[in-house]
């Protein structure tokens, strides 16, 4: 499944010097790394794709379906886009256990528990299912958040600094597990990361955003 977009977005400013993001991006199956200096629009791009922000102009297409077309006033709501988004903060429900976080919001469709079991085992979460989410380490919490995103059967996976703050061993293990699952399921994945030396070894393509544009 392919993904493409052309987007124009502005953060307004009373002084007239607000931030402007203007990008054209095309991704095939596999993992695409989006990198660049802080404050250049990487996280904003993910929020636009997920439908959490609205652009001034442009369109978003996933697998031949337009999720957004400003010119024709089409905008598929975030919960219907089939996009899994994981932020640097795992955003787990603190009052729920790991299993409840993983299965939260899933419809009782045929085969869901079998699919969940495979994903849970692949991410090394089987022994954590009854743990309160507040007792998890940073690496464990990230894996739970990404497991929850994968179990929603996304057509596109967006990862925003998923390894930030993890030690080298945990980072390597988590990255290998998560990206292997995404590739196995043919889910195009967009990964935002500042850690170029580590992340570039894991991905199929790299794009860089500078001054609100794709650098060439």
Notes on the structure:
Helix 4 (138-151) runs parallel beside helix 5 (168-184). This protein has six helices and eleven strands. The radius of gyration is 17 Å and the shape is globular. The chain is an alpha/beta fold and 216 residues long. The model has no long low-confidence stretch (mean pLDDT 89). The protein has a six-stranded mixed sheet with strand order 7-8-9-3-10-11, sandwiched between helices. A five-stranded antiparallel sheet has the order 2-1-4-5-6, covered by helices on one side. It has helices at residues 42-50, 98-103, 112-122, 138-151, 168-184, 196-199; strands at residues 3-10, 20-27, 31-35, 57-62, 65-69, 74-75, 83-86, 156-160, 189-192, 205-210, 213-214. Helices cover 28% and strands 25% of the residues. The two termini are 25 Å apart. It has a single domain (30-52, 82-214), classed as 3-Layer(aba) Sandwich (Rossmann fold), CATH 3.40.50.
Compact summary:
The chain has 216 residues and is α/β, with parallel strands linked by helices. It has helices at 42-50, 98-103, 112-122, 138-151, 168-184, 196-199, and strands spanning 3-10, 20-27, 31-35, 57-62, 65-69, 74-75, 83-86, 156-160, 189-192, 205-210, 213-214. It is built from 6 helices and 11 strands.
Question: Which features would summarize this protein structure in a list?
Answer:
216 residues, alpha/beta, Rossmann fold, 6-stranded mixed β-sheet, 5-stranded antiparallel β-sheet
Please tally the β strands and state the result. Answer: 11
Reported by name, the CATH topology is: Rossmann fold
- How large is the count of helical segments? 6
The oligomerization state is: single chain
Alpha carbon gap, first and last residue: 25 Å
Low-confidence stretches: none
Tally of structural domains: 1
Strand order within the widest sheet? 7-8-9-3-10-11
CATH class: Alpha Beta
Overall average residue pLDDT: 89
- The outline comes out as globular
């Amino acid at each position: 499944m392919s993904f493409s977009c052309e987007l124009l977005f502005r953060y307004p400013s009373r002084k007239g010097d607000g931030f402007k993001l203007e990008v054209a991006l095309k991704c095939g199956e596999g993992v695409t790394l989006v990198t660049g200096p802080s404050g250049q629009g990487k996280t904003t791009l993910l929020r636009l794709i997920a439908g959490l922000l609205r652009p001034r102009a442009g369109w978003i297409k996933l697998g031949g379906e337009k999720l957004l077309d400003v010119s024709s006033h089409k905008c598929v709501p975030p919960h219907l886009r089939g996009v899994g988004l994981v932020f640097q903060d795992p955003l787990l429900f603190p009052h729920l256990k790991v299993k409840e976080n993983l299965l939260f919001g899933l419809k009782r469709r045929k085969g869901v528990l079998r699919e969940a079991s495979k994903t849970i085992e692949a991410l090394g979460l089987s022994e954590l299912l009854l743990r309160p989410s507040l007792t998890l380490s940073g690496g464990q919490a990230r894996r739970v958040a990404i497991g929850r995103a994968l179990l929603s059967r996304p057509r596109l996976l967006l990862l925003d600094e998923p390894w930030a703050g993890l030690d080298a061993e945990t980072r390597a293990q988590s990255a290998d597990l998560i990206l292997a699952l995404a590739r196995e399921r043919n889910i195009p994945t967009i990964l935002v990361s500042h850690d170029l030396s580590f992340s570039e070894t894991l991905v199929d393509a790299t794009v860089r955003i500078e001054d609100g544009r794709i650098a060439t």
